[in-house]
Amino acid sequence: MSTLWATIVVVAAVSISLKAAGPALLGDRELPAWTSGVIAALAPALLTGLVLTDVTGPAWSHLDWRLCAGLGATGAAYLLRAPLLPSILLGVVLTAGLRALI
Q1: d(CA 28, CA 66)
Q2: How many domains would you assign to the chain?
Q3: What is the span of the domain harbouring residue 4?
Q4: pLDDT value at position 69?
Q5: How far is the C-alpha of 78 from the C-alpha of 88, rounded, in Å?
Q6: What is the model's pLDDT at position 36?
Q7: How many Å apart are CA 66 and CA 98, to the nearest integer?
Q8: What is the pLDDT along the chain (102 residues), one digit of tens a residue?
């Protein structure tokens, strides 16, 4: 087994262990009320960080304005109450179109 696959297996085992530890340690007890707000904010914050680092590149050196235009179109469509999937599709089509044209 190569080092890459060994690393993948170890990371998967650690991930499964961490996911199983919560229910195993808590049992039937409820989490405190303040934790639900923190847990609800973690997913959007993580997604925002991943998108931002993907858009800007390492050390903000590879900012792609076409991708920024697509993200802006997606955000604007979603703010104008368009459903999420068509909003994302609009951003993808706009970004692809700008990359094809320029």
Answers
A1: 49
A2: 1
A3: 1-30
A4: 94
A5: 9
A6: 85
A7: 6
A8: 799 999 999 999 999 999 998 888 888 888 888 888 898 899 899 998 888 888 888 878 888 899 999 999 999 999 999 999 999 999 999 999 999 998
Question: Which pair of tokens denotes residue 54?
Answer: 């993907």
Among 63, 33, 79, 1, residue whose Cα is nearest residue 91: 79
Domain membership of residue 86 (yes or no) is: no
* Cα–Cα distance for residue pair 11/16, rounded to 1 Å: 9
Does 59 map to a domain?
A: no
* Contacts of residue 74, Cβ cutoff 8 Å, sequence gap at least 6: 87, 88, 90, 91
In the chain, the largest separation of any two C-alpha atoms, in whole Å, equals 57
No. of helices (H) and no. of strands (E), the chain: 4, 0
Flag whether 42 is in a domain. Answer: no
Answer yes or no: is 19 within a domain: yes
